[in-house]
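Good morning,

Attaching, inline, the backbone tokens for the sequence recovery test we're adding to the shared suite. The designed sequence is right after.
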């Protein structure tokens, strides 16, 4: 009798486990078509020392560019310095993520953003704009301006809003937040792509759900959706000249959370749909692939924004002819090396080549 009871218990547990499994349903995000590989590609490159200070004064002969491990010819090269008059335009864009962050943390982030834009008497070295992501989508809070005091005043008057997606919505609420967030990132890339110059986008939020769970079912169609979104957003950010930075405003309160490091398992580029996982859509993954940085565990949001903005003080741009593949969406690794000891180079880690 006891053996029958044990068997019954096992069957009930197995049934409960099966019922707990949920198919993931995140539709692909619409993005502009990637540029064909016949169009020259421009790389924005930041070179720093071990302490993170930007290195100036490098020349084209100091750089080596590899496309899929093959040497690529640098067609044009320029060294940029923020102190140089009439240099290429730049913009710093701050995105406040109110979808994946609680109200109190958003309030703290807003205050620290105000501190950032008001520093130096409100005279911003790089024109800055502020956007906010809510459950209704992405909206522009301020125009891009060098008047930090004006930006702070507008942001201060912006009222907070209650979440339309209940945080108790669990799995399905998470799906909706992922969809809203990815649409916002793609839409921001498309919007900023209409303006010339380099853009540094600092996303203030812990990121959206990764769904790295054995009970989450990912179908082949869902993998194709993931791959389409990855190719689209990656290409949109590159064509818009965007470097993406991720700052977790939860700071030390989120330091022990697995979401501060779980994304690191998905840094390997996705080369085909069958390799796509939900974690490949993480905010932090897009940031690292764009040549940006990821910050968590720090309560000094103002200081972290300053570090991101410091990438605008000096950088290098170079163009090359990307390789033309036989099939669309063929991944190509990009590596930029500098013939100097003890330096770190940040730029995109690759691109999806098009026939």
């Amino acid at each position: 009798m006891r053996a029958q009871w044990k068997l019954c218990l096992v069957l009930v547990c197995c049934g409960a486990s099966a019922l707990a499994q949920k198919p993931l349903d995140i539709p692909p995000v619409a993005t502009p078509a990637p540029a064909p590989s016949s169009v020259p590609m421009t790389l924005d490159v930041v070179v720093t020392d071990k302490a993170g200070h930007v290195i100036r004064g490098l020349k084209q002969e100091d750089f080596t560019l590899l496309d899929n491990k093959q040497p690529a010819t640098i067609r044009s090269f320029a060294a940029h310095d923020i102190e140089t008059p009439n240099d290429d335009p730049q913009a710093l864009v701050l995105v406040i993520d109110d979808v994946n962050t609680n109200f109190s943390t958003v309030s703290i982030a807003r205050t620290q953003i105000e501190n950032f834009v008001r520093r130096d008497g409100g005279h911003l070295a790089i024109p800055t704009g502020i956007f906010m992501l809510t459950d209704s989508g992405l909206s522009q809070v301020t125009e891009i301006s060098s008047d930090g005091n004006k930006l702070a005043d507008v942001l201060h008057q912006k009222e907070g809003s209650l979440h339309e997606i209940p945080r108790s919505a669990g799995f399905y609420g998470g799906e909706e937040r992922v969809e809203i967030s990815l649409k916002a990132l793609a839409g921001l890339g498309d919007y900023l792509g209409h303006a010339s110059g380099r853009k540094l986008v600092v996303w203030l939020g812990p990121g959206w759900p990764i769904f790295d769970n054995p009970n989450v079912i990912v179908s082949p169609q869902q993998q194709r959706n993931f791959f389409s979104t990855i190719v689209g957003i990656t290409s949109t950010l590159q064509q818009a000249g965007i470097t993406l930075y991720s700052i977790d405003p939860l700071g030390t309160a989120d330091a022990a959370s697995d979401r501060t490091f779980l994304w690191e398992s998905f840094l390997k580029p996705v080369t085909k749909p069958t390799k796509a996982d939900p974690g490949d859509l993480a905010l932090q993954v897009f940031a690292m692939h764009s040549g940006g940085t990821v910050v968590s565990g720090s309560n000094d949001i103002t200081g972290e924004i300053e570090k991101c903005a410091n990438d605008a003080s000096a950088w290098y741009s170079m163009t090359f002819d990307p390789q033309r593949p036989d099939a669309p969406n063929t991944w190509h690794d990009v590596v930029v090396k500098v013939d100097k000891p003890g330096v770190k180079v940040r730029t995109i880690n690759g691109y999806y080549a098009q026939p």
